[in-house]
Design brief:
eight-stranded antiparallel beta barrel; globular; 45% strand; eight-stranded antiparallel barrel; single chain
Length: 493
């Protein structure tokens, strides 16, 4: 009897231990609750332009097609060009916004559709559609932002229309319940200049969800048709009127532009293909808020090579120049990073003077709502920089001829080089730059054009102005020596 009781006690103890282990590890959840998928964060996807010349491989194309999928099937003739997914508060479901155009309307507007999950039918449904002012699909950006300050995100659609004007359309959601839960259009601007949403500081109470915040004003810059100076602009400020549920014009201010030679300006802004591209074909240094040139941040535009080089924070980024559209004051460029194909930038360039331009850069299709971004601001042509302003930095392009074991290497101040070795000749592009305290040279041969063909060399100086090149690799760990044989470049007199 005692033996049976002892066995029973041991069995009870083992069962209790097993129950404690199961409860502690959460293993029991797999039997009583379905596996919950990881929730996706808000994402914005930029599509390939319809009939676009962008060169993408099959894998990248599959990624774009996957990310452009909508939760419901679109109607026949509706072509999706961008998708924005957002998580809803209080649950794992998402609401989805799809920007699309109609195949039958080649020059028609871009439309926005809202797709939500219906609890009763347990499926996604399309609850609303509305037209935006933009009509150029390659310029479209979708963004969700609380610009009103009521803690509810509005949907912003920016892009360009067929008149090459900048546009902005803002949709605001109605009540979550009832027939007014669809969106209403609270602002729609079409300007021959630029449009900015100016972020203002909101209270501590808003930041912690206690109260509402102030709404953001919209600043629009357009041509002053009453002025004889082409560079003069009008700044129009729009503010939100809660009673009318609309953004309304508040003030109009005349902004005098640079008093520069008007004939040359008319030629640059005439819209003749290639004129403004040729004008920006150069190296441009950033102008600091104090008005001085900063050679540590620059851009190089190469229209012929369809390339744009960004250099800042000791990092060089090369973008493929895809498309460009003229605007009232300059050019709007779409570009793609040569190494990270999903990284794209839109560059809005405006003429400031005959040796300076102003840039606004939109990266990863996120709408930039702050006034000063890392690449935004004024840039002055490098040829106007004085030696005192330039300091000890490295010139990206030189005009020099060298002999080496490769052959005779000639650098041109246009950023191009030629390498003649016996009966063969090779061409490409190059750039001198500085990373930390080390001077570097990057060579990019014309053939292939892929990132694998781009080589970087550390530059050491020797006697008689000779340059010693050591092959290196740039990565997260910094500059890594490839331990290859050194190349000596001896200047040719």
């Amino acid at each position: 009897m005692k033996k049976a009781f002892l066995s029973f006690s041991i069995a009870i103890a083992v069962i209790c231990i097993l129950i404690i282990v199961i409860l502690a590890t959460g293993f029991w959840k797999q039997f009583f609750y379905p596996k919950v998928q990881e929730q996706q964060r808000t994402r914005i996807v930029t599509p390939r332009e319809i009939n676009s010349p962008w060169d993408v491989d099959t894998a990248e194309q599959m990624i774009w097609e996957e990310r452009l999928k909508t939760n419901v099937a679109m109607e026949d003739g509706e072509i999706v060009i961008a998708v924005l997914n957002q998580e809803l508060e209080g649950g794992p479901t998402q609401e989805q916004f799809a920007a699309y155009r109609l195949a039958a309307e080649a020059d028609g507007p871009v439309y926005i559709a809202c797709i939500e999950y219906d609890i009763e039918s347990r499926e996604y449904k399309r609850i609303w559609s509305g037209a935006a002012a933009a009509s150029r699909p390659e310029t479209i950006s979708l963004f969700a932002q609380d610009i009103i300050g009521d803690r509810n995100s509005c949907i912003l659609v920016t892009g360009m229309n067929n008149r090459n004007e900048h546009t902005m359309t803002i949709f605001r959601r109605g009540s979550r319940q009832g027939p007014d839960r669809v969106f209403s259009k609270i602002a729609e601007l079409q300007i021959d200049g630029s449009i900015i949403i100016q972020e203002t500081e909101r209270s501590f109470a808003y930041q912690h969800g206690i109260s509402s915040g102030v709404s953001y004003p919209i600043l629009a810059y357009s041509h002053d048709s009453a002025s004889a100076n082409i560079m003069d602009q009008l700044e129009t400020v729009y503010v939100f009127n809660p009673a009318a549920n609309q953004y309304e014009r508040k003030t109009v201010t005349r902004i005098p532009g640079s008093q520069i030679e008007q004939r040359k300006v008319r030629e640059l802004l005439s819209g003749v293909p290639g004129v403004f591209e040729d004008f920006i074909n150069d190296l441009w240094y950033y102008v600091s808020p104090q008005g001085t040139l900063d050679s540590r941040q620059y851009l190089y535009f190469n229209p012929a090579g369809r390339e744009i080089i960004f250099f800042g924070d000791e990092t060089q980024q090369v973008f493929h120049w895809q498309n460009s559209m003229r605007t009232r004051y300059g050019l709007f460029i779409t570009s793609q990073n040569i190494s990270i194909s999903t990284l794209r930038r839109r560059i809005d360039i405006e003429l400031e003077s005959l040796d300076s331009i102003r840039l606004r850069v939109y990266e990863d299709v996120r709408l930039k709502i702050t006034v000063s971004e890392s690449w935004d601001g004024s840039y002055r042509r490098a040829g106007t920089m004085s030696k005192q302003e330039a300091g000890p930095s490295v010139k990206p392009a030189v005009d020099a001829l060298y002999d080496s074991s490769w052959g005779r290497l000639q650098f041109f101040n246009t950023g191009e080089y030629t390498l003649n070795s016996g009966s063969s000749a090779r061409k490409g592009r190059y750039v001198f730059f500085k990373l930390g305290e080390q001077n570097l040279l990057e060579l990019r041969p014309d053939h292939g054009g892929e990132a694998a063909d781009r080589t970087v060399y550390r530059i050491d100086t020797a006697g008689d102005a000779a340059l010693i090149l050591s092959r290196v690799r740039l990565g997260a760990a910094g500059i890594q020596d490839m331990l290859e044989g050194q190349i000596t470049l001896t200047p040719v007199e």
